[in-house]
């Protein structure tokens, strides 16, 4: 069973890989967003903050979010840990993403740049 700590680990890995990728840092230098990550099958909420090409991850829900990414813990661990492309669980209805189409595509592209297909 996936735990809160598993999600924390995958989000940290996502953050570290994003921040280490110079191409992503340049591409995201003007993409300032707050992303709420919410687990639907146990209590766990996180905030991803993108500011000037740098990503931070915090525990807890933000006061206001530009995007909301929600799904079962196992799906979120797989997506943010690089085990699966976000497109697959999104199309299967396991991953819900609310935000502008541009922001959704940007987040998907970040995952692609970090983890590949």
Largest sheet: 5 strands, mixed
CATH class: Alpha Beta
What helical percentage do the residues reach?
A: 40-55%
Count of alpha/pi helices: 5
Low-confidence stretches: none
- How many domain modules? 1
Spatial extent as radius of gyration: 13 Å
Strand content: 15-25%
Strand order of the largest sheet: 3-2-1-4-5
Write the layout of secondary structure elements.
Blueprint: H1 4-20, H2 22-27, E1 33-39, E2 45-51, E3 54-59, E4 67-71, H3 73-81, H4 87-91, E5 96-98, H5 101-115
Parallel strand pairs: 1-4
Antiparallel strand pairs: 1-2, 2-3, 4-5
Helix pairs in contact: 1-3
Description:
- This protein is an alpha+beta fold and 117 residues long.
- It has a single domain (4-115), classed as Nonspecific Lipid-transfer Protein, Chain A (2-Layer Sandwich).
- The protein has helices spanning 4-20, 22-27, 73-81, 87-91, 101-115, and strands at 33-39, 45-51, 54-59, 67-71, 96-98.
- A five-stranded mixed sheet has the order 3-2-1-4-5.
- Helix 1 packs parallel to helix 3 (73-81).
- The protein is globular.
List keywords for this structure.
117 residues; alpha+beta; Nonspecific Lipid-transfer Protein, Chain A; 5 strands
How is this structure best summarized?
The chain is of the alpha+beta class and 117 residues long.
């Amino acid at each position: 069973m996936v735990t809160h700590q598993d999600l924390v680990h995958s989000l940290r890995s996502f953050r570290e890989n994003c921040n280490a990728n110079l191409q992503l840092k340049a591409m995201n230098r003007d993409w300032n967003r707050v992303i709420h990550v919410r687990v639907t099958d146990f209590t766990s909420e996180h905030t991803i903050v993108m500011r000037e090409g740098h990503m931070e991850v915090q525990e807890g829900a933000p006061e206001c979010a530009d995007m909301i990414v929600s799904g079962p813990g196992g799906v979120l661990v797989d997506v943010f840990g690089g085990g699966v492309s976000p497109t697959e669980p999104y199309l299967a209805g396991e991953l819900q993403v609310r935000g502008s189409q541009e922001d959704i595509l940007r987040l998907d592209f970040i995952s692609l740049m970090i983890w590949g297909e």
